[in-house]
Write a structure and sequence with these properties.
Length: 1369
């Protein structure tokens, strides 16, 4: 078959966070065809998640792993001593999670099983671990070593935060230190605040007073600081109040809706979790938050310790207090409200709202049960208790003291205090460290092993060092096994051996590790992905550099031959550290390579390359260097020197281990003095491991080095099209579009969600290039704003609150403009935030109800009635700039004023003179921005032209990144950055409607319009925007750009017709990015023990050694297993061969290595007989059932399947318009009553036509909505949908048509939007408004066995959809 030939073409992209639209046209904007398909498409995929979620999981995993490591070290240190008195102690602890019958020791008790001391004795003596710790601190007598171990285990397990690392407890508990930090910060940042030092004690008292509420504290701060707003805010934050960033930094730049978080409270949020968000807002100024947090931690610490010296002592007091409160409360309730006693303290059904729910435990018949529900907070418990307390007048005299104590504790919220509270997280490690030191000091008098020293470190010190040990982030993972394999480890050691907390500095070169941490991203081969580079001074790399230079040297216009080059390297470079031009000429003459006058080309003064490393090793080894083993030693030495930097100890150890039997001491010593620390750009594999041929001569080379030795080409020439080296490299890289592209994309500065989109774009580009056999003439790129996390989390400003705040800040200046602020406020309160989304209404309130050009009052009723009196004007006229609908460019004015202003800029001088003081007032009070004020008061159109030029030239960084990557792959390519506004105004101008909700073809059509409009603007403006804008005439109009011919870009006679013809087409190729699913294996919440027939993962304790069956009935299980992919399988059932779909779960994927293990999996896990795999099917892959396209989204363990519909719905232009209206109507009228519905009125065709009235617009909407329902019915019954599973719903929906006609407009719009869902992917529609189900049409629970009786095909599509393989199942 003859290959299709392509001439010049344009390629357009519309890149979003979950889609890429693409299009290929000729230079006249006709969409090209290939393989009987139009060359445009929409590529769809799921938005990539950020790494944050995985990072949180990974950090938790590491934290737990390191905690376990610490505890294992503790066990190792104590084991010999404990095993002397209790050989089963550690086994009992490890098997504590097992049922008695599963324990190897068959001992009932977990901790103590002595004849005279069991677990119950221990808990009686020490009700909580803090009781034990307190006893060991206070009592210097000898204690059972097991008790010492348990106390230290508790300290090691939860050791507190490390924010004050290196400081001692005395410094942390010093209020003055914190105060000085604050003063230093304020001074460093030029904030001049006078804080009287005499107030220090007073301040500390207020901060730490647990009996005062936040409001009382705020009042006292105001007194101390003379109501200084900023200082009050700092200390309010320090005691746990919620404070705005604006108050904290005495500014107004952190406005609600403009920053992700505009407030902060240490009490209501976990600061460490939110810190990255605040850092993105504040930058270095976040230091003030850290200082305030240290005050807050100081307060919490003081409140927890109260008058105790140790945390354990404080916790024991809390326990006793809780016990006493509980006793008193029970006494009062039992005596005065006995009927409700059980409800408050015992009742299981009440446990959502009683004491059991508060402590998370319920005791019945002496048996404790954990309360599963979320625990009750103290505030809620207090409400409950108040409800059960008797009235004060009923209390007998003798009980009044107890009753009043309960009441006062309720008031202060200190009743029934808990030991385990979230504030424990604010305790620094030093709090626990002092306890550890004291316990060790007390017990080391009796236990000699605690004083035993090894390498100058006592066991006691080992324990203290282990407790405080943290791996610095710049050292990274300690396991360096994967380091040279490209893994995530960069640690540099001082010596080999096990790293322990007490030998860390001895084993790890902390400085070098920090260096590696910085350097680690740089060392990969320039051409071969994932291959490590070799040292620049290695013999191989040195020879490459020399040959690369020598091959281009000409002696009397002739290149050097292979023999001469070898001699020059051996006799000149291997003998001289620097080869000068003079020395080179002498050598050529002496060795008769040239005679007479020598003229050299390709060398100036001296060679840049050298063989210094060879010469250095030759000085040590002499002629032995000709032996392979000595070459190997030299190469390895250079590599190790590069890896270990200046660390001679570790180098010496390494070389002795490897070659100690060959090298003598003197040789090792000399080698160790060498310094090699630079890396090359290429890998060994690139230089020695890739075969290729010369197309012209047919000569074959076994490697790059061989070619460099035999020819006079340099590496760049070997990579040219004369040779197939580049092709061989591409093959090595497997799929270049997947790997080297990935590297380029990974290095780019864009969010993860856009990285996936860019990779898909590059794959499409590759396929188009392959099909056409050439590079596009121009590539047009337009990229969505999405994926920007700060944008994503931005809230839409609550306009009503914003306006109220602005009105409150107006002050007396308002009197100059005859504004009734009270009237404005009361009028504003009758509109909610949804209503204020109307631009005209929002502008009305921003302008105090005045026309911006005359200052005249605007009649609000007339404004909302859609009459002809008022207009929204664009300050920079729409005819002069490419669409700027931001509030900076909009004003509300009288219509005749706007007509007078016409399309001119600047605003008329007389308007400016009259209104300037009002505009200035609005600017000063933040009702308009500086930019808007500048536009209103501009003196000439120079500013306008500058704005236009910036509009055309400015491209967001993320969009540029795509172009940059394309240019790295194809340096000659011409990239044009299209603007969304250009394509969007083109759509508006020529009435090309976009209804995103209808189908996914709009991505491809946007890409097409990016080519058309992008090329017009690129040709007309962007190539030389500033020059063009200087030359343009006064009356230019961007709207009229398409009215004229533009050479090579727009033919006013034909181009529009071509565009219209293409935009009508429904031939867009929609493809989906499908892959084997990865990620979470199952629902991470463990389910309590029990039976289940579903697919589950039983929980198997690590120390369990019994049988694996029915573990779920003992230890619980995980459910909701996630599938990796599906299989279509033929197998035997009741002596018949049948076919069915099967699910392969993510959790099983690693066990399936090949066809054999897959069959084994189907037999053992799925219980299939004689299975034969027909095809692997991915989630969301196209599957044709009776020639209709679906995709599988779920398959449960009962082989019941859920599907998505993949057939796009197409509508004529008229119905697209109605549908757009339906969606807009739904958005605008959510929660509104019928009399307040908002409509879009028809524009008058000329000034003689009458305005549409409210009644006529309602009639029109009703009529159009009814027509839309009919259209959907017609579509569902059409031949396109005859094989659609939901086609059978047609009669049902026809029967309720009359009900639909009687609905109000909002319910009609809701039902139509639902009807559209029936045609979309989700297939499910809510028809409850017409008396049918909410879930009509959901294609689910379809039996796999029944399905296999239909005609089934699987489609395998290329990234563009231009290549499709149809596979019969």
């Amino acid at each position: 078959m003859k290959k299709q030939k392509f001439s010049d073409y344009y390629l357009g992209f519309d890149i979003g966070t979950n889609s890429v639209g693409w299009c290929v046209t000729d230079l006249d904007y006709n969409v090209l065809r290939f393989n009987k398909k139009d060359m445009w498409g929409s590529r769809l995929f799921e938005e990539a998640k950020t790494a944050a979620e995985r990072r949180v999981q990974r950090n938790s995993r590491r934290r737990l792993k390191r905690r376990k490591w610490r505890l294992n070290l503790l066990e190792e240190i104590f084991s010999n001593e404990i095993l002397k008195i209790d050989s089963n102690f550690f086994r009992r602890l490890k098997e504590s999670s097992l049922w008695l019958e599963d324990k190897s020791s068959k001992e009932k008790f977990t901790l103590f099983n002595d004849d005279n001391y069991k677990d119950y004795d221990f808990y009686k003596q020490y009700p909580t671990i803090f009781h034990l710790r307190n006893e060991l601190i206070k009592n210097p007598e000898k204690k059972d070593i097991r008790l010492v171990y348990l106390a230290i285990h508790s300290i090691f397990k939860s050791r507190g935060h490390f924010l004050f690392e290196g400081q001692n407890l005395k410094e942390i508990k010093n209020f003055e230190t914190l105060y000085n930090n604050l003063i230093a910060f304020l001074e460093d940042n030029g904030i001049n605040k006078i804080i009287d030092k005499d107030n220090l004690e007073k301040l500390e008292k207020i901060v730490c007073d647990s009996k005062k509420g936040l409001k009382d504290k705020e009042k006292e701060f105001k007194e101390i600081f003379n109501s200084d707003k900023q200082l009050v805010a700092i200390f309010k934050l320090s005691v746990g109040s919620s404070v705005s960033l604006n108050d904290l930094f005495d500014t107004d730049e952190y406005k609600k809706g403009e920053v992700e978080k505009e407030k902060i409270s240490f009490r209501e949020q976990i600061y460490e979790d939110d810190k990255p968000i605040y850092y993105s807002i504040l930058g270095e100024k976040i230091e003030l938050l850290d200082i305030a947090k240290s005050f807050y931690d100081f307060m919490v610490l003081n409140n927890i310790l109260a008058d105790s010296n140790y945390i354990s002592e404080a916790k024991v007091k809390l326990y006793e207090e809780h016990k006493k409160d509980l006793k008193n409360l029970k006494y009062i309730i039992r005596k005065y409200n006995k009927g409700n006693y059980d409800k408050l303290f015992k009742d299981k059904n009440e446990n959502k709202n009683n004491y059991s729910a508060y402590i998370g435990l319920n005791k019945e018949k002496g048996k404790k049960e954990v309360v599963e529900k979320s625990r009750l907070k103290i505030d809620d418990l207090i409400k409950v208790i108040k409800g059960y307390l008797p009235k004060p007048e009923r209390i007998e005299e003798k009980d009044k003291t107890v009753f009043n104590e309960i009441l006062s504790k309720i008031e202060l919220k200190t009743i029934l205090p808990k030991q385990r509270i979230s504030d424990n997280g604010t305790l620094p490690y030093q709090i626990h460290e002092v306890e550890l030191e004291k316990i060790l000091e007390n017990q080391s008098k009796y236990y000699d092993f605690l004083n035993y020293e090894e390498n100058g470190v006592s066991t006691k010190d080992k324990l203290l060092k282990t407790f405080k040990f943290r791996i610095p982030y710049y050292v990274g993972p300690l396991n360096s096994y994967h380091k040279d394999k490209g893994g995530n480890s960069w640690i540099v050691r001082k010596e080999e051996g096990k790293i322990l907390p007490w030998n860390f500095e001895q084993k790890v070169d902390i400085e070098k590790s920090a260096e590696e941490f910085i350097k680690r991203m740089t060392n990969k081969c320039t051409y071969l992905n994932g291959e490590d580079v070799i040292p620049k001074d290695s013999f191989l790399y040195s020879e490459y550099v020399i040959l690369n230079e020598l091959n281009k040297v000409q002696v009397n216009d002739e290149f050097l031959n292979e023999e001469n080059k070898r001699k020059i390297i051996d006799e000149l470079f291997k003998e001289n550290k620097k080869v000068s031009e003079k020395k080179f000429k002498e050598y050529l003459l002496v060795n008769q390579i040239a005679t007479g006058t020598i003229e050299l080309k390709g060398i100036k003064d001296s060679f840049n390359s050298n063989y210094v490393s060879y010469i250095k090793f030759k000085d040590i080894f002499g002629e032995k260097l000709n032996l392979d083993i000595y070459k190997e030693i030299s190469e390895k030495s250079i590599l190790w020197k590069c890896l270990y930097g200046d660390d001679k100890k570790i180098f010496e150890k390494k070389i002795k281990n490897e070659y100690g039997d060959i090298l003598n001491k003197d040789e090792i010593k000399k080698i160790n003095t060498f310094k090699f620390n630079t890396w090359g750009r290429l890998s060994e594999k690139l230089l020695t491991g890739i075969e290729f041929i010369n197309f012209e001569t047919g000569e074959c080379y076994s490697s790059v080095m061989e070619a460099l030795r035999r020819t006079n080409y340099n590496l760049m020439e070997l990579l040219s099209s004369k040779f197939n080296l580049q092709e061989s490299i591409d093959n090595e890289n497997k799929d270049i579009s997947q790997f080297s592209y990935r590297d380029l994309v990974e290095e780019s500065y864009v969010s993860p969600s856009l990285k996936r989109a860019i990779l898909q774009t590059l794959k499409i580009y590759e396929e188009i290039k392959k099909i056409t056999g050439r590079v596009p003439k121009k590539v047009f790129i337009e990229m969505a704003r999405g994926g920007d996390e700060t944008m994503k989390n931005k809230k839409i400003p609550a306009r009503q609150e914003q306006l109220k705040k602005l009105y409150d800040s107006c002050g007396n200046d308002i009197a100059n403009f005859s504004i009734d602020i009270k009237e404005m406020k009361s009028s504003l309160s009758s509109y909610d935030n949804n209503s204020l989304r109307q631009k005209k209404l929002y502008l009305y309130y921003l302008q105090f109800g005045k026309c911006m050009y005359t200052g005249k009052e605007i009649d609000l009723d007339r404004l909302l009635q859609n009459n002809d009196t008022y207009d929204i004007d664009h300050i920079y006229p729409r005819s002069k700039v490419i669409k700027d609908d931001s509030f900076d460019n909009l004003v509300l004015v009288l219509k005749n004023e706007n007509a007078e202003k016409s399309n001119e800029y600047p605003v008329k001088k007389e308007i400016q003179e009259k209104m300037k003081s009002f505009w200035r007032f609005l600017k000063e009070k933040n009702f308009i921005s500086d930019e808007k004020y500048k536009r209103l008061t501009g003196k000439d159109d120079f500013e306008l032209r500058g704005f236009m030029a910036r509009q055309l030239v400015n491209v967001r960084q993320t969009t540029k990144e795509v172009g940059k990557i394309l240019q790295q792959i194809e340096p000659e390519i011409k990239i044009v950055y299209s603007k969304a506004e250009i394509a969007s105004s083109f759509r508006e101008m020529f009435d090309f409607i976009k209804v995103r909700e209808l189908n996914d073809t709009h991505h491809a059509k946007d890409a097409y319009l990016n080519i058309v409009a992008g090329n017009v603007y690129n040709t007309k403006f962007t190539e030389k925007p500033y020059r063009y804008l200087q030359e343009i005439k006064e009356n230019y109009d961007v709207k009229k750009i398409y009215n004229y011919d533009i050479k090579k870009a727009w033919d006013k006679e034909n181009s529009l017709e071509i565009v219209k013809k293409n935009m009508k087409k429904n031939t867009v190729n929609i493809t989906r990015f499908i892959k084997e699913e990865k990620g979470q294996l199952f629902d991470l919440n463990p389910i309590k023990k029990g039976e289940t027939s579903n697919e589950i993962i039983s929980i198997k304790p690590k120390v369990y050694n019994g049988k694996d069956d029915k573990l779920n009935e003992k230890y619980g299980y995980y459910k909701s297993l996630n599938p990796a992919y599906f299989l279509y399988v033929e197998h035997k059932e009741k002596n018949k061969r049948i076919k069915s779909f099967e699910r392969v779960n993510l959790v099983d994927v690693n066990n399936i290595k090949d066809e054999k293990s897959l069959v084994k999996y189907l037999i053992e896990n799925k219980k299939l007989v004689e299975p034969r795999v027909i095809k692997k099917v991915y989630k969301r892959q196209v599957i044709l059932i009776n020639d209709y396209p679906y995709s599988i989204v779920a398959l449960d363990s009962n082989k019941l399947m859920d599907f998505e519909n993949l057939k796009p719905l197409f509508l004529e232009n008229k119905y697209e318009k109605i549908l757009k209206n339906v969606i807009k109507f739904l958005e605008d009228n959510q929660g509104k009553s019928e009399e307040n519905y908002k409509f879009i009125y028809l524009k008058k065709k000329d000034r003689y036509e009458k305005n549409e009235t409210l009644e006529s617009v309602k009639d029109r909407y009703n009529l159009e909505f009814n027509e839309m329902y009919d259209k959907f019915l017609e579509k569902l019954d059409s031949k396109d949908y005859k094989n659609y599973m939901n086609n059978k719903k047609y009669q049902e929906l026809l029967d309720v048509k009359e009900k639909f006609i009687k609905l109000n407009l909002f319910d009609k719009a809701f039902t139509l939007k639902s009807f559209l869902d029936l045609f979309n992917r989700k297939t499910m529609a809510d028809f409850s408004k017409v008396g049918l189900t909410k879930y009509l049409g959901k294609i689910q629970k379809i039996s796999s066995n029944v399905l296999s009786k239909n005609e089934l095909y699987l489609l395998e599509e290329s990234v563009t959809g231009l290549f499709v393989k149809k596979i019969k199942l």
